[in-house]
Amino acid sequence: MSTTKTWFITGASQGLGLALTQHLRHLGHRVAATSRRLSSLTAALGPASADFLPLQLDLTDDAAVRATVTQAHAHFGRLDVVVNNAGYGIGGSIEELSDAETRQAFDVNVFGTFNVIRHALPLLRAAGAGHIINVSSIAARAGATGWAVYGATKAAVSALTEVLVQDVAGFGIRATVVEPGGFRTNFLSADSLVLPRQPIEAYADVRASHARYLQLHGQQGGDPAKAAAAIVRLTQEPNPPLHLLLGQDAYNRAQTKLDALQQELTAWRGLTESTGFAQ
User: Fold this and answer.
1) Which residues contact 224 (CB under 8 A, 6 or more apart)?
2) Residue 30: which of 70, 81, 65 has the closest Cα?
3) Going from the N-terminus, what domains does the chain have, and what CATH number goes with each?
4) What are the residue boundaries of the Ketoreductase domain, all occurrences included (predicted)?
5) 262: three-class secondary structure by DSSP
6) Residue 270: phi, psi to the nearest 5?
7) Is 203 in a helix, a strand, or coil?
8) Where are the alpha helices (DSSP H) in the chain?
9) If you write DSSP's letter for every residue of 110-143 in order, what string do you get?
10) SS3 state at 81
11) Which own/partner pairs from 60-67 qualify as long-range (CB within 8 Å, at least 24 positions apart)?
12) Over the stretch 3-61, which tens digit does the pLDDT of each residue have?
């Protein structure tokens, strides 16, 4: 019995999306890969072939998303795994980022994910099977100073996946949210991040946080090739997890957050429970 699958991956021209697409092609899987620029895809991964379909896609255009998902399904005859990987980092205090910049981050990181899921689900439901993998971030669980908007977009991706998995369980469809820590991609390069164009001097802690993260570029502890292998393994498990952290740093940050949350819950339990009607 063949174990090859048909994958649909957004944001495949760089970073984890590129590493995953390369790994899948090496394993012999069929891949429909998207990017905002088709030239970036073909430069990184080569031209279209029987097992590879590069597609240009603006995730904020719902009609384009529907057409692209439909095209991929028609080309391969099925979709087995949908990976919502596309996204970008945006840093700054809330008042340093404009409404347009903030909404654009949500349009790409969150609503782009909604758009793909919306149009992939009818196809997966009809097949009675499928796996949706949404790439979030450890920032969704344990945010860092100066990354409120980015953390909010990724928290939305994690939260929507937690309910999605319940909504689609009866159709034979699985869902997992992947929450990576730092991986050695171009994510933290100055060219990839959106940072305040007019920083406010008072936010010294935010500037210091950004400087620390920018210095990590090229030094991150996570290996993208190993992350790709881990994501493929997810799809081979009979009972895949709803949440998958990737990277030792992600595990450590999540554990620290859990410990702090438990302490806070305990400390304020009395006030929490005091708000009910008297018996």
Assistant:
1) 15, 16, 18, 19, 183, 184, 185
2) 81
3) 6-264 (3.40.50.720)
4) 5-184
5) helix
6) -60, -45
7) coil
8) 15-27, 38-45, 62-76, 99-106, 112-127, 148-168, 204-215, 224-234, 248-267, 269-273
9) IIHHHHHHHHHHHHHHHHT-EEEEEE--GGGTS-
10) strand
11) 60/107, 60/108, 60/111, 60/112, 60/115, 62/115, 62/118, 65/112, 65/115, 65/116, 65/118, 65/119, 66/115, 66/118, 66/119
12) 899 999 999 999 999 999 999 999 999 999 999 999 999 999 999 999 999 999 999 99
For tokens 């430069």, name the residue: 43
Pick the closest to residue 81 from 209, 273, 233, 190 (CA basis).
233
Kindly list the catalytic residues: 136, 150, 154
Distance CA 152, CA 148 (A): 6
Give me the phi and psi of 13, to 5 degrees please.
Answer: -90, -5
2 band by pLDDT with thresholds 50, 70 and 90: low
Say if CB 211 and CB 166 are below 8 A apart.
no
Rounded to whole angstroms, the Cα distance separating 117 from 113 reads 6
117 class by beta-carbon count within 10 Å (0-12 exposed, 13-18 middle, 19+ buried)? buried
- 71, with CB counted inside 10 A (0-12, 13-18, 19+), is middle
The owner of tokens 């590879």 is 52
State how far the Cα of 139 lies from the Cα of 192, in Å rounded to an integer: 17
CA gap 222, 182 in Å, rounded: 6
> How high is the mean pLDDT of the chain?
96
Q: What pLDDT, in 10s, does the model give residues 106-155?
A: 999 999 999 999 999 999 999 999 999 999 999 999 999 999 999 999 99
Residue 195: half-sphere exposure toward Cβ, Cα within 13 Å: 18
